[in-house]
Write a structure and sequence with these properties.
Layout lengths: L4 H13 L5 E2 L1 H8 L3 H13 L3 E2 L6 E3 L1 H23 L9 H7 L5 H10 L25 E2 L8 E7 L4 H9 L7 E7 L6 E5 L2 E5 L1 H5 L1 E4 L1
Antiparallel strand pairs: 1-3, 2-3, 4-9, 5-6, 5-9, 6-7, 7-8
Helix pairs in contact: 1-2, 1-4, 2-3, 4-5, 4-6
């Protein structure tokens, strides 16, 4: 049975909110989706019937393995689309999210399989986030926030936690792109802003920006 657009939006929210124990609360979903809690409760009852979640009143939801797979497959469509727009249509990484939001609801599996093939089976999207495979499996990454790094460390910019247009344009202006080497030169004790070195350039990042940048050593 095909999932509806609304169901896919809920599945994607579960993907982003579920904790390491496979749990998420109705309140978290309500805030994330900006949907009233009675509506979320009704949808989760439907998800329970589909065996995607275990639903008990006044308890956190438990997302089942089936639910995690369904959620990952929606995210797969979104991230593949973003990669296609960047690699094959020359969109900037800051201009693909809204288009992918629309195309992720296309139900044709062969469409996304062909997209995957044309892209030569990418493992990550343009923002450094892993693309789930056809079975919903995801590559585990050992990343940390740039804000947690120390002076003198050199790290690789691997991903972002926020892919909205304004933040990505902010990174573009500073030539801070994926796979760029970043050296931490100074951290201000007052506001934790960070002076970094990118190639031959120096930039100052706010703590807020540094917390949204994920790096690997």
């Amino acid at each position: 049975m095909k999932t509806t657009l609304t169901e896919e939006n809920y599945l994607k929210a579960l993907f982003h909110l579920v904790d390491n124990e496979g749990k998420v609360t109705i309140n978290e979903l309500s805030k994330f989706l900006n949907v009233k809690m009675p509506s979320v409760n009704n949808m989760m009852k439907k998800f329970a019937e589909k065996k995607w979640v275990i639903y008990e009143t006044y308890k956190p939801l438990i997302v089942t393995e089936s639910g995690k797979r369904e959620a990952a497959l929606v995210v797969r469509k979104h991230r593949l689309t973003e990669m296609f727009l960047v690699k094959k249509m020359n969109f900037g990484w800051e201009n693909v999210h809204e288009i992918a939001e629309q195309l992720e609801h296309v139900h044709s599996q062969i469409f996304f399989d062909k997209m995957d093939e044309i892209l030569d089976y990418p493992k990550f999207d343009p923002h450094g986030e892993p693309i789930p495979d056809k079975d919903g499996n995801i590559i585990a990454q050992d990343l940390q926030k740039l804000s947690s790094c120390e002076v003198g460390e050199t790290v690789i910019f691997a991903s972002v936690t926020l892919s909205d247009d304004a933040f990505l344009s902010y990174l573009n202006d500073r030539m801070l792109l994926l796979n760029t080497k970043v050296k931490i030169l100074k951290i201000e004790s007052f506001d934790k802003s960070m002076t970094i070195e990118i190639g031959n350039n120096k930039e100052i990042l706010s703590k807020k920006a540094a917390e949204k940048i994920l790096v690997k050593k």
